[in-house]
Amino acid sequence: MNERISFDNSEIIVSQTAENELSNWINSMAYSKIFILVDENTHVHCLTKFLKNFPTELPIEVIEIPAGEENKTITTCVQVWESLADLKADRNSVLINLGGGVVTDLGGFIASTYRRGIDFFHFPTSLLAMVDAAIGGKNGVDLGSLKNQVGVIQFPTKVYVNTTYLNTLPPKEMKSGLAEMLKHGLIKGLAYWEKFEQMHQMNISALDELILESIQIKSSIVQKDPNENGLRKTLNFGHTLGHAIESHFLNHPQKYLLHGEAIAVGMILASFLSVQLNQFSENDLSRISALIGKYFTKIEFTSKDISQIIELTKFDKKNFGNQVNFVLLDQIGKCKIDCQVPESLINDAFNYYDSLKL
Ligand SMILES: NC(=O)c1ccc[n+]([C@@H]2O[C@H](COP(=O)([O-])OP(=O)(O)OC[C@H]3O[C@@H](n4cnc5c(N)ncnc54)[C@H](O)[C@@H]3O)[C@@H](O)[C@H]2O)c1
Ligand SMILES: [Zn+2]
């Protein structure tokens, strides 16, 4: 597979020789030094393979951060900014973010702000980063348990996707990325969604074409509405409650959930609300619950969890009073933004989720 998706000032290249193409590009430019940002896992699993296929005469420095969402903080940024300064990164240096969404979100923010901005490239290595985090120019860090509160919209010069890096990704992390792919089907394409219903096994060869399609769906939405004035909000389907669930369990390490695991629950809850408020069909709600249930284990919520999660949705600046703003479905593949949902219905949605035999 060798596909290119072009933006105004950016490009996504999906190729099994992506490293080589990136080195060709970088070698053709007047960069002074290459910095590669990894986390401890992508250092072990991805860096050797990457460097083997990345010929260059330019000096390379590797900067490692600890793995995990809890390190997507301004404190980690300060450490990386200091490393860049110590290693004499100048305005013509370039940063390659080799990792999952934590590395691409944080690395994009670091590069956008270091010396008021140096060029950067994303080389996503997790499924979630390939289909979502690395696409669309949003970069940033968390503030305490509140997700993505500090950041910028800045597109990388290019994004390079090589799906063979998924061979070392743990199965749980594969599922986390799958949640975002399912979301792309629910908001944009019935035919795309149905391919997942027909998929018997989740392996990389089955997913290869679907990954490309997911990238195309997200990038076409972002191209039409980069600043999230309207259409881009559809990508938040499942995220109003999903983010609140994720934030809530960040404070409860024993029940810690991956981003996609939280979004998977959020999508079932939003689909239930779509039936209540949007004439979405009960049958399609069952289809969604069944497919998500095939891949994701059920989460137990206590009534205290639920009330704290509802409180967290209120931190979202798009919500006011006792109404929470949602993206809801009209049909599979078609959705509506800015739907106001009364708080009491959210409780009903959790009751529905609780009643499911997943
Ligand atoms: N910017 C956006 O538009 C956007 C969109 C969606 C999600 N996000 C963000 O993305 C983050 C989640 O991304 P993620 O799920 O990739 O998390 P992550 O970066 O923590 O990666 C998941 C885990 O997989 C490991 N890993 C990554 N690639 C690997 C590989 N090839 N082999 C072995 N291990 C590997 C990582 O070290 C980590 O332990 C969240 O912070 C979320 O907010 C951002
Ligand atoms: Zn998401």
From TrEMBL:
Alphabetical keyword list: Cobalt, Lyase, Metal-binding, NAD, Nucleotide-binding, Zinc
Keyword Metal-binding: yes
GO molecular function, one term: nucleotide binding
InterPro entries linked to this entry: Dehydroquinate_synthase, DHQ_synth_AroB, DHQ_synth_fam, DHQS/DOIS_N, DHQS_C
EC assignment: 4.2.3.4
Superkingdom, taxonomy of origin: Bacteria
Keyword ATP-binding part of the UniProt annotation: no
Domain 3-dehydroquinate synthase C-terminal: 177-319
GO biological process per UniProt: aromatic amino acid family biosynthetic process; chorismate biosynthetic process
Cofactor(s) needed by this chain: Co(2+); NAD(+); Zn(2+)
Matching Pfam families: DHQ_synthase, DHQS_C
Span of domain 3-dehydroquinate synthase N-terminal: 63-175
GO CC terms: cytoplasm
Described purpose of this protein according to its UniProt entry: Catalyzes the conversion of 3-deoxy-D-arabino-heptulosonate 7-phosphate (DAHP) to dehydroquinate (DHQ).
Stated name of the protein: 3-dehydroquinate synthase
